[in-house]
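One thing: could you explain this record?
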Amino acid sequence: MIAPTSRSSSVLPIDAFMVPSFIPKLARRSLLLCSVTALLPCQAFAQTTLPQAPTYLNQDQNHDNQSVSVRRMSLDSPGMSSVSVDAQRERLFNELAEEFSTFDRLGHLVRRVSQLVKPSVIHIEAHKTEGSGGSRQSYDEAGSGVIITAGKGESWVLTNRHVINGAAPKEIRLRAADGREFYPDRVVSDASTDVAIMRIDMPDLPPARIGNSESIEIGDFVIAIGSPFGLSHSVTFGILSAKGRRDLSLGTQKIDLQDFFQTDAAINPGNSGGPLLNLRGEVVGLNTAIASSSGGSEGIGFAIPINMALNVAEQLATTGRLQRGYLGVTLDPDFTTADLIASGYDFLQSGALVKNVRSGSPAEQAHLQRGDIIVEFGGRAVESDDHLVAQVGLTQVGKSTPMIIYREGKRYRTEVSLTDMP
């Protein structure tokens, strides 16, 4: 389970819940890593238990199980002949068919995308054992993945680290949409982003087509494919609800570099690592977590933007690790737009305030000082301290990167060459 978004250092028991700071009115709601975990006795595999079937309320009953009368509008009116009624009904059916055709085209598009992408989606079952001494537990964790090409043109399954963390390659069973099962020959992961890749030797399985997560906008339609509750290759549909969700606390797992998409496409335990798609059939995100008080989808899911995930995956495939960029500053996490206005920067919409510059760091060499407000990094506006941390962490080490800062009311431009995180 995940704990919520919070800047506090409170430590919660594994079964406790906190309220995400960006959802202040969301009472008793938690963030859950969307992979399925089933506890088992030592060395035993679990069988997934499906949730109980929902109870449906008859349309002629109210919630107290009392009979109610439903009055239906009649097309008949005084003086209308049966011929005119039939003609009116025919006209209404024709109008309905015209309106339905618009929605039917959208549904047809969703079906085509699902059929096209399913061969690139992989169901994952990772067998893990935890504990020490005589107290050890075995369990299976189910999740999803999507095939990409990385490194030297090799086929890899891109997924979340938390889905496969703690399992050896021979304990990670992969299943394609056609039912074939196989195992990866190499697994590499990064804890700071919760991204993992697994190399496979299945040349006939097609890699997914990758989109540009920078171009997707709030309100765009999206499709999620994964294995909710172990039900592999399930498809759900929704919209992109928000961008730039950061500072989420995922229970005991710390993800340092965050820049999540939010979606209302139904994402449940087991969807972790599966693709979030646009209507062109391109992967734009990697489904990772949900906010939920029930353990199931409540319309708040989170996905890693695919540009970010692929940046990490490419480095993992070529070097075996992520080189995290290091700037060497301490930022003020409480700095807000109100502080900008109070300081006379009412023309600025956002930025990150430098509290301290470390000696000998790239920031010092770029002549940054305490009190500087960083408003642009690498050509992108800085939205907050968390946003800057994510941008710096994923910027190529050694590359000259432009920055724009404000100091004592004046605008300055400088460049910095980041080093690898010490």
Observations:
- The chain has two domains: 1-7+16-42+117-322, 325-420.
- Residues 82-117 form the longest helix (36 residues).
